[in-house]
Amino acid sequence: MRLRPAVLLITLLSILSWICVAQSDPKPENATAAVLHAFETHDLVLLGEIHGNKQEYEWLRSLIATPEFADRADDVVMELGNSLYQKSVDRYISGEDVPMEQVQKAWRNTVGAIGPPSPVYTSLYQAVRETNLKRRGKHQMRVLCGDPYIDWENVKEREDITPYLGNRDEWYTHVVKDEVLAKHHRALLIMGWGHFLRGQGHSYVEPQLRQAGAKPYLIVFGTNVTGGYDDLDHRFDAWPAPAIVSLAGTWVGELSATPVLSGGMPGGRAMVVHGPPSAGAVPEAPPPPLRLEDAADALLYLGPRDSLTMVLMSRAELEGTPYGKEIQRRLTIEGFPSNFNNDLKEAPQFSRPRESGGGPPPLPPPPKNMGAPLPPRPASQ
Prior knowledge:
Elements: H1 5-24, E1 29-30, H2 31-38, E2 44-49, H3 54-65, H4 67-72, E3 75-82, H5 86-93, H6 100-103, H7 105-108, H8 119-134, E4 142-147, H9 162-165, H10 168-179, E5 187-192, H11 193-196, H12 205-211, E6 216-222, E7 243-246, H13 257-262, H14 292-295, E8 298-301, E9 309-311, H15 315-318, H16 322-334, E10 346-348
Helix pairs in contact: 3-8, 10-12
């Protein structure tokens, strides 16, 4: 039987409408299964993390302990890892008896962290070591330190920090190229989401890795916030956690990236300083909000925003210790207040913003040697 044109048109519109609805409905996948699936078609899985999050690192430890992950991934590349101590990390991760006082320098002595690092990073290094010990005679994983090789014992003033601080993304990329891609390895890359995010006009790491022939899959941490702090989106409520959701063609991908990634906190948008406008210049219109699907391939959902917890090294753990005194020295050199440290071991990942005042003090002007190149790399310790 032949369909009349009007009936045929209605039928086609119905089919197209059904397809659009199907494409707009995200399908949360078990986070571990999603990462394993990504490694089937990609050599690099990039995780844009939220620093120090308890739920995130509980999942990461379980991921690393999964036999299928250890079978597929050769390396884990850490932002919180000082390359100066790669030798000690290699020995520790392989199961050798390395004093903790030595190997912990890798995550305690980075240039990117302000103040003491969260204990979650210690636990991740330990998880890789424990997994390798259980896999004696099988494929072993390696943790690669992705932060520049600063030696804090030689730092006396801010200008001593600048070459390392200003070249963090470049060095991280260099480590991945030399230690992962050149060896035809597969790796999980862990770095704060701001370093990986696409569509910001200043992203460096992922474009450089693509130019080097890598096929990366980018996952970013996200929350159920779609506007200001109180704009919680209840469409997330039925999702399991932890879950990973593909962003392309879904309503999640259409969301503005900034509130989802920053938990609705003010100041979450990456700032780009262009300098003062020239005389008579017409101010540029702000760019349109960056959509999530333009920023990454997938979203890591760990639960409702208000259920998320950060793990801290408390003031009580630092006071009176050599490391606590060293942290105070570094904060002074960097220009941060001496009371920067925390009283608690755990706190909400995103506390309600204060209504007025109380913000951090302004930072001192940039050092004169801003843009200085990295010095030659010393022997690894």
